[in-house]
Design a protein that fits this description.
Layout (H helix, E strand, L loop, with lengths): L14 H5 L4 E5 L5 E6 L8 H17 L15 H10 L4 H6 L1 H11 E2 L2 E2 L4 H22 L7
Helix pairs in contact: 3-5, 3-6, 5-6
Length: 150
């Protein structure tokens, strides 16, 4: 008989792989407003949005109790994401996360895909981001009226 986790239906034999998986990435400001949210493990319960909001509230409650001088990571050991954003935005701030969320998500997708870390070399990540920026600027130039290009 195959034994499974009750909520997800995942076999116990896969539990080691799942425990190493990144469940989500949350960036929350000092007032509890989520700026970047990306879940890699889908919530199987009847109200997934409510469950995700509860997770965000719980995490904010945990990290807001700490001093303002401390960086808050839960189960986090690697600063590749923060360092890459610092290099992309030249000292990243909350406004960068708000107005360039597409770029932030692209950087995150270069590092983590489906909950598994794919790349930790900052130079490789920056190369991919710069290539994406180059392609994006070329497509924007071609689509703007009055540029003389089709």
């Amino acid at each position: 008989m195959r034994k499974e986790f009750p909520l997800t239906g995942v076999p116990y034999s896969q539990s080691v792989r799942l425990s190493a998986m990144i469940k989500g990435v949350l960036i929350v400001n000092n007032h509890g407003k989520a700026r970047i949210v990306k879940f890699y493990e889908h919530v199987v319960r009847p109200y997934p949005d409510a469950e995700q909001q509860a997770v965000i509230r719980d995490i904010y409650t945990q990290v807001s109790k700490r001093s303002d001088t401390l960086c808050n990571f839960l189960e986090g050991r690697c600063l590749v994401f923060v360092e890459t954003l610092d290099k992309c935005f030249e000292n990243v701030c909350e406004l960068d996360l708000i107005f360039h969320s597409d770029k932030v998500h692209y950087v995150l997708d270069e590092i983590v895909m489906g909950g598994m870390v794919l790349e930790t070399n900052i130079n490789e990540i920056l190369t991919a981001v710069n290539e994406m920026n180059r392609l994006d600027s070329n497509s924007t130039k071609r689509s703007l009226p009055g540029t003389g290009k089709k």
